[in-house]
Design brief:
The structure is a homodimer. With about 240 residues, the first copy, chain A, is α/β, with parallel strands linked by helices. In chain A, about 35% of the residues lie in helices and about 25% in strands. Chains A and B meet through α2, α3, α6 and α7 of A and α2, α3, α6 and α7 of B.
Chain lengths: ~240, ~240
């Protein structure tokens, strides 16, 4: 039976190796009116895949990264293809002290939180943190030899003291800029979600995040592509009662 | 000629006085699949109005505030009614040193920025800040005796040092939690935008923002409602070549 899977990726440079390898077809006809996103489709074995990237900001010619476009991408992907799984693939920061290394590919584990939304009013605080559910990735991780970790999302590439404190409170090992927004959409739309994050930089290392990120983007994107295909293969060849 | 106007508001308590006064009709039939938002419509003179509020988080029973739901609300409102103007009404913090007082109603002026998105890579930095355009509100402000100011948006109710520094750099007088995300959607969809923000708290005052916010929410929502109706009346009775 065919499975529909949506893949949401913020940066074109992260997505290009996957687009090439799985021979995705660019589908401008699927883009919702007014939005800058890029839609791609392919058939991979028994899987109908829809991939969405964020497109470029017309003023600054950079990808539309961070949570606001990510949430819209996720909703539009779900509306277009009603997937049984949404995978958010991307690059991310890792915590060296918790064992993360450059080039590692992590799967989401337990929950995805925000670390930049501080709303100190009862109820709103918990809402701000998010803690959205993800699928149990233990079997995939064991089969492919991948690490797993709690992911924390913020709209900045760098971290202020408050961000760091919340990342620690969440028990997160991976820090990205989109996953929690996508997880909120998946949670509200009842679509199972998995995040796959390839480490470009170590947030507890002295070198500036931006320099590490640019130095390691190609390596991390290549690893991300290889492991994403391996995950799709695993899902194709194994029963997954969560989807 | 009838004008279509979309009004986007994060909190139900902010919207209820307006819903009651303009006899908005609750329209669950307009809500896109899976989303928690509440849609309302009414006809006010020559204006077809669509109002969207963010709905409640099912786990914590609080409004879906902040930028991620706001962007989705704005896009769905635009998709549903193709408005010639989108108005984002809400409560906000003000800067006392710049002349803001509790209960003041501000109109957006010049640009709307983010203060919580720090991406220190050339091009991405400017993208993160946003600086989205808004309509020229000078005539409305003069006619109604309203103040105008640059608005800066962040996903937290409180402010870290980095947030404060960026608010100052933007020259902002008003600090809210949604406007820039909505402004991004309006910018990308080419829909003119106006923000109307009623001040609940002064961010440069010693009292905690959360306490001020809760103390002044009813007053600010009442002022917001009165001035939003006055703005709609003004738009009805005056040519506005920006729309």
């Amino acid at each position: 039976m065919t499975t529909k899977i949506a893949i949401v990726m913020a940066m074109q440079a992260e997505a290009d190796p996957l687009i090439e390898n799985l021979r995705f077809c660019h589908r401008p006809d699927l883009v919702p009116p007014g939005l800058p996103f890029r839609f791609y489709t392919t058939v991979y074995g028994q899987q109908d895949l829809l991939l969405v990237t964020s497109g470029k900001d017309p003023r600054f010619q950079v990808d539309n990264v961070a949570t606001v476009p990510a949430a819209l991408m996720a909703y539009q992907a779900i509306e277009r293809c009603a997937p049984s799984l949404l995978i958010n693939c991307g690059t991310a920061g890792g915590i060296k002290a918790a064992g993360a290394m450059i080039g590692d590919v992590y799967l989401s584990k337990d929950k995805i939180c925000f670390h930049h939304r501080r709303i100190p009013i009862p109820g709103f605080w918990e809402y701000g943190v998010g803690s959205y559910p993800v699928i149990d990735s233990a079997a995939i991780a064991a089969a492919l030899g991948l690490k797993r970790g709690i992911i924390s999302t913020g709209d900045s590439l760098d971290l202020c003291g408050e961000d760091l404190s919340l990342i620690e409170q969440h028990g997160a090992i991976v820090k990205d800029m989109e996953a929690a927004a996508i997880a909120w959409v998946c949670y509200t739309c009842k679509v199972p979600m998995l995040a796959v994050k390839s480490i470009t930089d170590l947030i507890d290392k002295a070198a500036p995040t931006a320099d590490q990120f640019l130095d390691n983007l190609a390596l991390a994107s290549s690893n991300l592509q290889r492991q994403t295909v391996a995950i799709l293969d695993f899902l194709q060849n194994n029963e997954c009662d969560q989807l």
